[in-house]
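Hey everyone, long-time lurker, first post.

I ran two proteins through the pipeline my lab uses and got sequence/structure pairs for each. Pasting them in order. The first:
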Amino acid sequence: MQNFLKSSLRKLGVIVTLAASLSSIATFPAFADYPEKVVRIIVPFSPGGGTDLIARTLGADMSKELGQTVIVENKPGAGTIIGTDAVAKSAPDGYTLLMATFAHAVNPSLQPKLPYATDKAFAPIILIGRSPNVLVVKPESPYKTVQDVIAAAKAKPGRLTFASQGNGTSAHLAGEIFKNLAKVDLTHIPYKGAGPALTDLLGGQVDMMFGTAAAVTPYIQSGRLRALGATTAQRSPAFSSVPTIAESGVAGYAAESWYGLYAPAGTPPEVIAKLNAIAKKAIMTETFRKRAQDEGLIIGAGVPAELDTYVRGEEARWKKIVKENNIAAN
């Protein structure tokens, strides 16, 4: 009987070991062969804005390195929440990614009932870079300086309008802080992306925009928009002739945009590591670096933890500012 038990246990051990081996063999190729199909980058804005341009430039170079097509899919709406939620609810397999921006860190403070937990629903891949926003107006606008805008806003409270690519975005919050620190009343007009916002700005439907550098640089360079002030604490190398809003008389003013790539939480570490390495190569290409240089983008391109640390810091900072300045999403 004792020998029978020993024999049975040995057979059971062999079966367990074989099952574990087969499981390992079945699982490993899924990681090793990634990607085996199209990879999507979800942009939570309409086409044509700065985030869309950055995502498409990055995706084109990532596609070459991955050996698979990388497509950009625009899912605008609700201050980036619609597109972000789509990624949060996607399979954690590395085939659906999120191009996150400033709004990703601010929405938890502005929106009390998000359909996802920002700090738990996503796995960081890479901090692509940081850049200024730029206060812009049409060339024929009567406002030629930041002080012109302040004077007009004080003379006509609530009459001047500023566009943004959506509630909770950098263009929105940059305008809200401006209102509070300059002690003026401006009316915020949100859009589903920088593209539609710029269309209305160029068409004269709105007075100004604190646009991302990526979105407004081509229009500044072509003379279709005039830059009045940069939102960062120091002047941007890409806009060296443009004064900061702080040095234009709004003491303490500072804000910046950023771009980061995320996957759904639970994506295998091996896939995250591969995406980080591929994205880093794409960011260092001549095509991407040229776009980054033109738009004042300070490249990050570090490890996933860099994005996580930076965004947690931004979330804490903006939570304090939103509360202290009574900034609302609408």
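...and the second, right after it:
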Amino acid sequence: MIMYPREAKEIIKNISKTFKVLLVTGPRQVGKTTLLLSLKPDNMEYITLDDEVLREQAKSDPKLFLEEHPAPLLIDEVQYAPNLFSYIKINVDKENKNGMYWLTGSQQFHLMKNVSESLAGRVGIINLNSFMYSEIVKNEKKELFDPAKLNEYKTMPKIDVNKLYEIIFKGGMPTLYMEKDLSCDIYFSSYLNTYISRDVKELTEIGNELSFRKFIVSVASRTGEQLNYTALANDALISVPTAVRWMSILVTSGLVYLLEPYMNSELKRITHLPKIVFMDTGLAAYLAGYTSARELQLGSSSGHYLETFIVSEIIKAYNARGVTPNLYYYRDKEKNEIDLIFYKNNKLYPLEIKKTAIPKKEMIKNFSKLEKTKKEIGTGGIICFYDTLTKLDENNYIIPVSNVINYSGPQD
């Protein structure tokens, strides 16, 4: 099997050295177990609660379970036995050792609830996503993308637009890269069935599976757009409250990220609706019915998929370093929009994401809308398919896609 480097490996090692418990969360099949198995000490036992016998033992007698499987211990899919957390707390409080328990889980809401109640201060948490571009091409990043440092960047080798859309269409699920002959259609069909039959039913009673499938298709078809619960409810023939509840499931399970609008007391007539970001564009493209990368690339939603891809890549990269980025977008009632805003050190860094190789200064005209915030406006620019990193004006840059997703930061 081909192994791919994961950028989260360093933060996982650091957390294990400084916390008694490590928890890696994220959607199913993004490589949590594979990564931890590659890093675990030789004396650490591995147990998966996907095994129904072990799961029942852990649920019915968690104290005895942990006595029979002493630390150091890696427990996979720990959300199936929430009673374990209180006994893990007891065990780690008895010992002055770090890295005693490594845990993985696919349902962030239940996990976070149990962790906050039982393991606060004792656990380091990493949210793992599907492969990002740099992992697929095996080019590990050295720095996170930071618009505040654009003046230090050098141009990276250009990424071919056709090849990039092939990756956008395929997405980043590790199995699709490790099993070269596996069809995307077969994989995503199986993934969806597993997701609905296991994770969703664990989180809530969805009632009508067909309606939920229509709902998730509708969400995927609107990636890169503002969240409209009424439209989603109409597509799936469900009520708006049900659409709200089901969207929370997609967010909870890590499949969807809601990019919030930037708001402050100085801004008037702005949207309060978040923007949908499907965290794996391959799954989104499958659900939306695209049959080829070319069809996606030339379709009317190609710009939304590029935007989704760029935003999700930034989020994935920050997650892999254990950092939560302050990301927003801007849209007012007159439909003036800024695709992405970094908020850092009390400054706003505005970015446009455009499927073009000929960026124009008029594309950043809405940046001036942020002056009403009375915040300092930092460096910004247009992320696009231009060949070189180039100044657009005194404060803004033309930023090649490669500088964002392949290697972020100043070169040595």
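Reply from user beta_strand_b:
Welcome! Quick read of the second one: The CA atoms of residues 23 and 68 lie 21 Å apart. The chain is about 40% helix and 15% strand.
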